[in-house]
Design a protein that fits this description.
The structure is a homodimer. By secondary structure, chain A is of the alpha+beta class. In chain A, about 35% of the residues lie in helices and about 20% in strands. Chain A is globular, with a radius of gyration of 16 Å. Chains A and B meet through helix 5 and strand 6 of A and helix 5 and strand 5 of B. The complex binds zinc ion (ZN) (4 copies). Chain A binds a DNA duplex through helix 1, helix 2 and helix 4.
DNA sequence: AACATTATGTAATAATATAACATTAACAAG
DNA sequence: CTTGTTAATGTTATATTATTACATAATGTT
């Protein structure tokens, strides 16, 4: 592996870093336009700049999109082989979102075969319920 | 169970029926504005009329929303205890979507406990891969 | 009949996301 | 170091998805 590739794996671009930092320190999932509002003082002025950074961050597994909420959270499975095999719990009252990292669950889903015997190494699972505080 | 309730369970309203019929006979998931375009000749003129019908149809389990695609498909698990426990396979090339009805999978997910011992009877799982035709 | 609930109609607007095009930065190869 | 290539950025405009607000009508219940 060459230097350039290592850098690309380790170093985010300026916009990517700004937006990742914001998402990473947020206690809750952030929506694209909330992000835009927050980073305008740092010179990121247009939706597209945000969406491009988000796309890249999702692609490299630094963040995940919560599809049912159109919002983004940082990945805390530092190893993150799971960037394409994600599971979350979502509180239907306070909207708290937690990434689930269960070896059993991920193994079960990675080995799951549909009726045609097809396996899938990419999936997204969202559980809904009430968090500790809300139940 | 009283008559009113039975009617509510069996009979869709006019707009609901029109929109359900369209989705039910579609071979692919339909998006809200594609639905709107298709039903304008039947007098449904505004997005809100479509979204209201969609909300209701989702609520009663006649259709499901494919969250990653913002599109809707009819449920073909006629029994449909699973309207809040859904699983789909999605082809990343042709966008074909198939509802998965696997007793094993649904049991596994309904019995899954997170780190806090919490169980969830509501979930949505989307698998991504290539369908038979596309691989 | 009176009341409550569900569904509808309509206009306006909010929220989410992408297209198109120009420019600049990073970087690999010769 | 310059040439070709890819990744990232900047900017404007626009497309797509979804909701608010308010008025009316249909349906179901007592
Ligand atoms: Zn993760
Ligand atoms: Zn909660
Ligand atoms: Zn179903
Ligand atoms: Zn396919």
């Amino acid at each position: 592996m060459r230097t350039g590739n290592i850098n690309r794996m380790q170093n985010l671009s300026k916009n990517q870093q700004i937006i990742f930092d914001l998402i990473d320190k947020s206690p809750e999932p952030l929506k694209a336009y909330a992000i835009l509002f927050n980073v305008q003082k740092k010179g990121i002025k247009a939706p597209l700049q945000v969406y491009r950074a988000l796309d890249k961050l999702v692609e490299i597994g630094k963040i995940h999109k919560i599809e049912s909420r159109n919002a983004f959270i940082a990945c805390h499975n530092s190893s993150c082989q799971v960037s394409k095999a994600t599971a979350f719990s979502i509180c239907e009252i306070c909207e708290k979102v937690t990434e689930i990292s269960s070896v059993g669950l991920s193994k079960y889903l990675a080995n799951f075969k549909d009726k045609d015997g097809m396996k899938y190494n990419k999936y997204n699972l969202e559980f809904f319920g009430l968090c500790k505080k809300c139940r």
